[in-house]
Amino acid sequence: VRAAGIEWHPRGDLKVADEVVLLLRPDAVRLVGASPLGGRVVHRRFAGASAFYTVRVAGDLDIEIAASADAAREGDAVHLEPTGTGAHAWCDPRPLTLEPSVAAAQDKRPE
User: Fold this and answer.
1) Does residue 66 surpass a pLDDT of 50?
2) Where do the DSSP E strands lie in the chain?
3) 33 with 105: CB under 8 angstroms?
4) CB 107 within 8 A of CB 13
5) Rounded to whole angstroms, how far apart are CA atoms 86 and 17?
6) Which pick of 17, 21, 28, 108 has the fewest CB atoms within 10 Å?
């Protein structure tokens, strides 16, 4: 599954032609100094020592991420990369857990 410039490798039986829904938890992507996936912070919501940032990528796709409260400001250009956890995709009502750029150890759906 390719979304927002990141290639995700799902566990399960998705087919090449399947359209899927991709859900990224705020801990699925992190801010980094440089990466192919860039965006702009359009909203920042404080949560104590951390904050939730809405980063707009690919024109109109918003991704919410969690980071330290001083990691970025609204309007800042930022770069993102997957953390390896917190991503889910599905083409039917049962979600699949995904790992970015890593072959899944088992090819089976969660029960």
Assistant:
1) yes
2) 2-3, 6-10, 21-24, 29-32, 37-47, 50-57, 61-68, 77-82, 87-90, 96-100
3) no
4) yes
5) 24
6) 17
Copy the structure tokens of residue 24. Answer: 């990224």
pTM of the model: 0.70
Rg of the chain (C-alpha set): 15
Retrieve residue 110's tokens.
């969660």
pLDDT for residue 75 is more than 80? yes
Provide the token pair at 37.
């996936």
Q: Are 101 and 9 in contact (CB under 8 A)?
A: yes
25-34, 39-48, 72-81, 94-103: range with lowest mean pLDDT: 94-103
In the numeric block, the tokens 């990528």 are attached to 57
